[in-house]
Amino acid sequence: MARLASQEKMEFYPTPEPAIIRGIKEIKIETPIRALDPCAGDGRALKILKENYNAEVFGIELDVERSKQTAEITGDGNCLIETDALTDARISAQAFNLVFNNPPYDWERGYGDKRLELTFIERYASPLVEDGIMLLVVSESLFDMYSRAREFLTVMLKNFAVLSYFKMTEDETYKQWVLILRKGKAVPILKLSQSFNDGKYEDALKQIEDGIYNQNYRTFFNGVIALSQGLRPNLDHDDRTLKTEPKPLKLFSSVSITDEMIQKALACNNKTVDIALEAIKPKDTIETLLPLRNSHLPLLLPTGHLNGRVAGTNLVINGQVERFIESYEETEEKQDKNGKTKTQTVNKEINKFRAKLSVLDLKSKQVYQIN
After folding, report:
1. Are 330 and 364 in contact (CB under 8 A)?
2. What's the pLDDT tens digit per position in 20-36?
3. Most Cβ neighbours (<10 Å): which of 51, 96, 99, 361?
4. How far apart are the first and last CA of the chain?
5. Which residue segments constitute the domains of the chain, with CATH numbers given?
6. What is the CA radius of gyration of the chain?
7. How crowded is the C-beta side of 347, counted as CA atoms within 13 Å?
């Protein structure tokens, strides 16, 4: 389920420019850069890369107002997507050799309560070419307990080796660190899991534990680098050179059609509308184990699986599911220490969901909302 835009807006913590500059300077660049920022914000990281390193820059930003700032940096063409970077973005594999990743600090509720940062690390390993580099900004809350740290390391070390690290700023109010990661061939999850019980990594794991329990995160990261070296012994961990060119970028688009896109389309002529929606094509067929019935359609539409231009018509559809909280009162009976029953009213909240379907008629330029 796509995350709510309002939730994203509340989680905008831009990376200070000095930290971005320092992170880039940690890399030795020997090849043209195609860079991606999946949480582009106001585009400051892309701006530094473009102006100082002549990088070809691409961004993804969910918030419409911030995306306007980023669009001024990425320039003309399909270099910026206004969409949810996790659920709706579609990007060619290994099409970038540098990814700047400062994901939101939150929980991905509803799917095992996984941290969003971990999902972003996994998701944006794929667009990065093998031997490419990711600059990752993470909060100490990801590894301030051993159980959390183990999950963080399992996700990160599956695809990356840790080359170096530094604290984002010496100001103690900030609890973020910047990691320089190099992508390698994926390490099997079973091997990663076994590494936490393997005596071969005993010294590195002890260093990791000491760093967590003493809140000495430099000790923690030194142990992480040692573990990373053990898992990828053939990699030169002192080499921070960006030297591998990315593969062709054939796909960089979104499967969603936002309300903002519909409003833009309404302000254009039909030809421009067709161009704007060209990357959002309907599925030719939907393969299911059993035949679809009419009752299935209300279930499929809100999930976004059918988003796009309806073949053979002038209609463009956009299905969404919105989460909201409903408050209610509930009467409870409790016994006191004397065995007497007391009745009290308790205020409670429950998560609920509602479907929303927007339909744009390209011919009449009318938008129909179905809730």
Report:
1. no
2. 999 999 999 999 999 99
3. 96
4. 17
5. 5-242 (3.40.50.150), 256-370 (no CATH)
6. 24
7. 3
